[in-house]
Task: inverse folding
């Protein structure tokens, strides 16, 4: 079972105070303070300077805080120095294609945690898969000890393929990210829809629900519409919870290897799914 389960992670430019405040009140499970694409090159030093203050304010409002760093080594080092702190739950690393690189970033994070009096492993890693090369090593990336989630970056992935970020393109990599993440008990953040399509609420809900059917556990968001869609898609319905409780009751009453409920077979895998669903609802 996942140790951390965030249904919605909302991006916000780290240097935009007004949008940070709105994100904190959006209902998202986590807010991603972006130091990469959402911040102009000339503003990155200013954005780094406000990370800890912004993280404290957002965490006090309820959401977990993630910081997306830049891909280049020098920028990433400066970003990590700004990001590691008591209120930052995870760092998101973009364009990841190399396990050795991820290991080095994790080691740097460990040194910064020790320097700042934080327990080892305080800061998780959310890995962005944004190319076919990254997808090819997705399981190895997810296996790294500090990783808590694996995410598909739909726009960059489509750009690396030279095509539009359509559901036809994103469906298979979303499934592959879900499989790689599940292999190692990580969050899978890979809705098969362009993240730019935030105005079509029905499409957002449908894509998130489709992802949930094959093991996706949450969504990257750039708008509150997507947060609401993810909250709906990745939370068990009352009917699903009721069925799970009835399955467990039937199993306990039968005290057998196989029983039935409403004409359907109940065996151990069915029971395990029901237990997981109820545990998810409580988390």
Result:
């Amino acid at each position: 079972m996942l140790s951390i389960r965030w249904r919605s992670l909302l991006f916000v430019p780290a240097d935009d105070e007004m949008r940070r405040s709105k994100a904190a009140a959006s209902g998202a499970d986590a807010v991603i303070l972006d130091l990469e694409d959402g911040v102009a090159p000339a503003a990155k030093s200013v954005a780094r300077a406000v990370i800890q203050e912004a993280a404290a304010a957002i965490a006090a409002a309820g959401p977990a805080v993630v910081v997306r760093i830049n891909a280049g080594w020098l920028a990433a080092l400066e970003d990590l120095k700004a990001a590691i702190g008591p209120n930052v739950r995870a760092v998101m690393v973009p364009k990841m294609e190399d396990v050795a690189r991820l290991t080095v970033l994790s080691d740097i994070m460990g040194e910064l945690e020790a320097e700042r009096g934080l327990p080892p492993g305080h800061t998780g890693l959310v890995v962005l898969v944004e190319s076919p090369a990254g997808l090819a090593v997705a399981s190895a990336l997810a296996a790294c000890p500090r990783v808590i989630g694996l995410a598909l970056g739909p726009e960059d992935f489509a750009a690396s393929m030279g095509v539009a970020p359509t559901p036809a393109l994103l469906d298979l990599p979303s499934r592959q990210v879900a499989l790689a993440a599940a292999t190692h008990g990580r969050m899978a953040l890979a809705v098969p829809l362009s993240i730019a399509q935030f105005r079509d609420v029905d499409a957002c809900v449908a894509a998130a629900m489709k992802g949930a059917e094959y093991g996706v556990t949450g969504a990257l968001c750039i708008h509150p519409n997507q947060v609401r869609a993810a909250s709906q898609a990745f939370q068990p319905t009352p009917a699903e919870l009721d069925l799970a409780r009835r399955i467990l009751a039937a199993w306990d009453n039968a005290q057998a290897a196989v029983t039935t409920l409403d004409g359907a077979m109940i065996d151990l895998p069915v029971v395990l799914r029901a237990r997981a669903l109820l545990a998810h609802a409580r988390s």
